[in-house]
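Progress note, sequence design subtask.
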């Protein structure tokens, strides 16, 4: 099914965060067309059509943000917990880019997470933020696994190249391993360690019923075994010492 873009008007841009160390959430897009099969933000009625169907984009998000920033208390902004801010629609609509440009004069610290190489288009704006961390989500070292679980998101090699390109221009980078998908932990560590300042491992989604079901459906049954996953986590942490 083709993706239909629906432009919506945001009433507010900065939302107070409940996450420690993060003051605001900023969501330029209400939905995400990356279509990761384990995604747990699709609980709002998108069901099996997540990544297809209607994509809700906040067309006025940057304008609303510009109105809010002069009176907002300075704080850390996370972009974006609800959807990839560099999903395909961003190529045309530049809502995330416009939001980043709005943030530059105020220098709020920014954390941004994506799986998309489109972020490289905005290096010129990102470089103007004094406190910025870009997280690239890399959940496995295997592109076969990536294709099974994240069929529409960019290949692993592309994500490593994003990391490398950002690192080379001096932007703070972080690798986010969430969820923990079937992998060779040493090989993944080897691929990322030269290009990242930090690694966050969270396997909260790995134990969700949805992910457990996917492991079984896709033939990775042993990944549903807690003891097996615990061993993998230990190997991963060991291989990433100094970055966690
Ligand atoms: S990129 Fe994130 S929000 Fe988008 S489908 Fe994948 S997990 Fe969900």
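Output:
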């Amino acid at each position: 099914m083709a993706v239909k873009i629906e432009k919506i008007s945001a009433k507010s841009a900065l939302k107070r965060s409940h996450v420690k160390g993060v003051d605001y959430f900023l969501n330029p897009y209400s939905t995400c067309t990356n279509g990761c099969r384990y995604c747990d933000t699709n609980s709002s009625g998108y069901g099996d059509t997540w990544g297809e169907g209607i994509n809700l984009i906040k067309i006025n998000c940057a304008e609303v943000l510009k109105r809010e920033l002069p009176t907002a208390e300075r704080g850390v902004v996370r972009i974006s917990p609800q959807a990839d801010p560099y999903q395909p629609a961003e190529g045309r609509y530049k809502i995330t880019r416009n939001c980043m440009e709005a943030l530059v004069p105020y220098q709020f610290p920014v954390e941004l997470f994506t799986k998309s190489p489109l972020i490289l288009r905005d290096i010129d704006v990102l470089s103007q933020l004094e406190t910025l961390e870009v997280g690239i989500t890399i959940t496995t070292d295997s592109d076969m696994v990536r294709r099974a679980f994240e069929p529409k998101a960019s290949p692993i090699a592309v994500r490593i190249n994003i990391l490398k390109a950002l690192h080379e221009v001096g932007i703070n980078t972080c690798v986010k391993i969430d969820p923990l998908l079937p992998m060779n932990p040493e090989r993944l560590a080897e691929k990322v360690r030269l290009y990242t300042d930090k690694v966050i491992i969270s396997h909260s989604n790995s134990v969700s019923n949805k992910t457990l079901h996917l492991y079984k459906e896709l033939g990775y049954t042993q990944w549903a075994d807690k003891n097996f996953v615990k061993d993998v986590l230990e190997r991963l942490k060991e291989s990433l010492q100094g970055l966690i």
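Confidence is low (pLDDT under 50) at residues 43-49. Work on this subtask will continue into the next period as scheduled.
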